[in-house]
């Protein structure tokens, strides 16, 4: 059984290109230079994690084989990019800080990230998956940072925006919203999420994350590029969106990402409208 790197590793490494040609060249250079310090530096760099996740291991089924394919590398880059953007944004918020995570129910961000005090994290995910994951996380001692609050809203709620308000979300205060791993079955289901986010986020707030590329491919028969499709979809809900290149994101993290197929779109969008509460 294989399991994606995204949920499997305590250290999330980003290995070098391991094709035979490069391995042979690397060995030759090390032999010619005869430099043990260089060898140590290269070996160490290949194991440098993009991020630490001390809790993901408890969510992995026993006897699971890790999958280090290229798609997992893209996922790791996206995860680190989203992590950094979330923390940079909330650290510039005054007073109460609101974070909304649309996830698959196994997102460990509430536990592993160093959230500033007065941060409220709202998780929107499938109820059954979330309850199973939270039990395992509590068993290994996972805890939310002090002076922070973590609240769950089932994805199956008939009105997610209303459910968030019942939990204390305030559309008159700044927030940042992120999506990664949320099971989206149709384009219509994402449009519902986007409409909900548009009603929640006050002007200037960010919505970012990773979307399956097949969402854009459902617009069969149009000549629009994915970027134009994203612009039209997000602008119709009051957001100015920018697609983020995985390769540029990797470069900003000091990593080299091989060209290859990946099935997701990384994006950052800014709300241009007022929220429903404003």
Automatic annotation (TrEMBL):
Pfam families in the record: LCM (PF04072)
GO biological process, one term: methylation
Keyword presence, Metal-binding: no
Coiled-coil ranges per UniProt: none
Signal sequence residues: none
Gene3D superfamilies: Vaccinia Virus protein VP39 (3.40.50.150)
One Gene Ontology MF term: methyltransferase activity
Alphabetical list of SUPFAM superfamilies matching this protein: S-adenosyl-L-methionine-dependent methyltransferases
Record carries keyword Kinase: no
Keyword line: Methyltransferase, Transferase
Protein name: S-adenosyl-L-methionine-dependent methyltransferase
């Amino acid at each position: 059984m294989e399991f994606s790197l995204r949920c499997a590793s305590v250290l999330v490494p980003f290995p070098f290109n391991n094709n035979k040609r490069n391995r042979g060249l690397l060995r030759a250079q090390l032999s010619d230079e005869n430099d043990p310090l260089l060898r140590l530096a290269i070996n160490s760099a290949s194991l440098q994690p993009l991020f630490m996740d001390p809790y993901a291991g408890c969510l992995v089924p026993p006897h699971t084989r890790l999958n280090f394919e290229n798609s997992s590398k893209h996922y790791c880059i996206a995860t680190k990019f989203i992590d950094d953007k979330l923390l940079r944004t909330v650290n510039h918020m005054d007073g109460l800080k609101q974070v909304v995570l649309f996830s698959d129910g196994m997102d460990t961000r509430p536990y592993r990230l160093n959230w500033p005090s007065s941060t409220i994290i709202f998780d929107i995910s499938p109820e059954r998956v979330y309850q199973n994951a939270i039990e395992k996380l509590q068993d290994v001692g996972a805890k939310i940072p002090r002076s922070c609050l973590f609240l769950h809203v089932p994805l199956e709620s008939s009105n997610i925006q209303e459910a968030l308000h019942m939990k204390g979300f305030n559309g008159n205060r700044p927030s940042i919203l992120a999506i990664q791993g949320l099971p989206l079955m149709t384009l219509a289901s994402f449009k519902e999420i986007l409409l909900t986010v548009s009603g929640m986020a006050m002007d200037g707030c960010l919505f970012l994350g990773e979307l399956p590329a097949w969402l854009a491919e459902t617009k069969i028969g149009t000549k629009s590029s994915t970027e134009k499709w994203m612009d039209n979809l997000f602008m119709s809900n009051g957001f100015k969106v920018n697609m983020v290149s995985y390769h540029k994101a990797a470069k900003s993290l000091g990593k080299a990402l091989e060209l290859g197929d990946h099935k997701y779109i990384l994006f950052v969008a800014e709300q241009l409208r007022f929220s429903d509460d404003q």
